[in-house]
Predict the 3D structure of the following.
Amino acid sequence: MAPSTSSTSLMALLLMLFPVLHVAAEAPTPLSSAQIILAACKNVGSASTHVDVEFCQEALGSVADAVHSLDYQDLAGLAVGLLIDNATSTEGKIVRLLREGGGGGVRLKEENDAAVARCLQSCQSLYGGIIDGGPPCMSAVNAGKFGAATAILEKAAVAAKECEDGFGKSSSTSLLTPEDKDAYELAKLGAAFLRFA
Ligand SMILES: *[C@@H]1O[C@H](CO)[C@@H](O)[C@H](O)[C@H]1NC(C)=O
């Protein structure tokens, strides 16, 4: 009789445990990446005046597949990756504009053309610096060296602003306003995530 008793009690035990296991498996409903992104962006947005929640949501939304948790170190890495991609494409645009002549296809007076070309050359070197800072910044983020990573990001934000301000100083219309804004905000976003990491 012993085996049957023990299998009966095993059955009873399983029956008792089953609802518990069932509930345990269901309880932590995983957050969707959209929910994680919203929470992350609200957190950094309320802590930094340089971070716009909507910009943050759009930026992370473009890499939503890579957003799995509110791990701010990972999120900072994503922002750095976006900044590198962004700066690389901006540098490409600058090279194209310089090839077409400073005015970017727009006919300008000769001295204006020269002024715009000088601004673009300066921006090319500034964006070159942002791109060069990308890999060491990413390594610093991954290694948990948040101070070093933040310093590179702050430098990138300054570079993007300097590019934009250069046009104003030479009384030229900036040909890179959206790009400068994106680079500035992505750099600030990365730095803001690192403050939570
Ligand atoms: C640059 O970043 C902004 C903000 O995330 C994004 O909207 C834009 O598409 C990016 N551009 C490129 C070329 O990566």
